[in-house]
Amino acid sequence: MVNLNKFLNICVGTLGTLYVLNDIFFKIMIKLYRRQGYTFQTADKIASNVNFFSIVVVMTILLVLIGILSIIGNMILFARSNFLLRVSMNITNILMPFLYVNRIWFIFYELLSCGLFLVYLYTLSVRRSNKNIEFDLF
To answer: Which domain holds residue 111?
Structure first.
């Protein structure tokens, strides 16, 4: 169960990072089209024709389904180390597609999501090298 939970947590973090990269790529495409002289509406329409919407929908569905399974697994294994980190990483990644707005604070939310995932990966690497840390609460 522990290895499955780690796998689900890593999948949620990876899908969240891919969602962020997809958003960054979309914004870069719009800026490139605007630099060529297109208006914002035209650049957005051209960039939307690349089928970003279907990719975002599939990633959102996978993120929510795997995230819910991961949160259930984290609740079962709540005594393991980094419980709060695991749950907060999953919640921020699950809510990311539903909180999307084209504002500056959402960039900070995306950075928080990726940062939590990187911290989780770092704690996994530290835990692998030192087995005595396994049952620390925080």
So the answer is: 2-133
